[in-house]
Amino acid sequence: MATSSTGGESPVTELIALRGRLIGQVGRSIQLPEPGFTLDLANRAESDVRAFKHIHQTCMLHRENFVAANQIKHLYLIDGFLTLIEAQNPVALYGVARSMVELSAFLHEISTRLQDVVLRLDDRNWKPLGEKFFGLIVRARFATTHPQFRALLAAEGLTPTRLKPFNIGNCIDGLTTEPDHQDAKTRYASLCDFVHHNLSSSSVSNSGSGVVDVARSAGGGELRHPDGSLTVTQYEYPARGKAAQAVDNLASDFLRDARACINWINMLPGSPFPQQMVTTITGHPTGLKEV
Question: φ, ψ for residue 84 (rounded to 5)?
Fold first, then answer.
């Protein structure tokens, strides 16, 4: 996925340009085969080559499906943010911004875990670590708390471990280890306060507070204080200025998170096995040629 930037422009302008570049890559139809939910190594026990190819090819296909789905989700979030700017909707802007942070943290977690498997893999442990890579990418794709989905997936052989979603708090903690994202935990906490029904989320629903001589209702009524001053909060729809304030607060970090998602996707290993190992064992660089 593209990451280039013209620089020197506003975050919103750069976000629009990023969307334009991504559309050329993501905005096209593609059909990918769905590999199995589980590995079938028992039927390949007589041949390490067949077992190796099975793990390699199945992991590759799950990885490609994972990438395609998350590229589209990523683009939808960018679309949502830009659309909400046009709609001047401050409440929903904070929700989409939080979703982008969560996506970045999730993709970072998966990328980091898969890279760790690849770094530790060698000629002696390729099978168990290949199975670990498979388990991680399957969990990344299919983990869910939805009771009906869990039952269906369990019937297909997915274990409770592979059905357990990655904890977003742990993913955010992992993201903070990156030099450019050390503020992720603080930012995420703030965004949650705007998304949950707390003080911050209420604050974007009014046009501000101040001291006035007379408080006036929508029906024309008036309320006065004996000393001539009233502290009031003004409520109206749309809440004046709050959308522009939300964009000022969010756009730069949203752009940073959007670019980070692209980076984590680009860093995802294509397979548990290094290129040289694939060529040596299968006799073909892609590992797809029949032997």
Answer: -70, -30
3-state secondary structure of 144: coil
Q: How far apart are CA 185 and CA 206, in angstroms?
A: 27
Characterize the bridge pairing of strands 214-216 and 222-224: antiparallel
What is the pTM for the complete model shown?
A: 0.90
Sketch the domain layout of the chain as residue ranges.
46-198+241-282
Cβ-proximal residues to 127 (8 Å cutoff; 6+ apart), any chain: 41, 48, 51, 52, 55
Instruction: Give me the helices (H) in 11-146, please.
Output: 11-26, 48-87, 90-120, 126-142
How does pLDDT run across 264-279, given as a tens digit for each residue? 999 999 999 999 999 9
Q: How far apart are the C-alpha atoms of 211 and 209, rounded to whole Å?
A: 7
13-27 residue pLDDT tens: 999 999 999 999 898
C-alpha dist (Å) from residue 196 to 83, 95, 98, 201, 202: 21, 9, 11, 7, 9
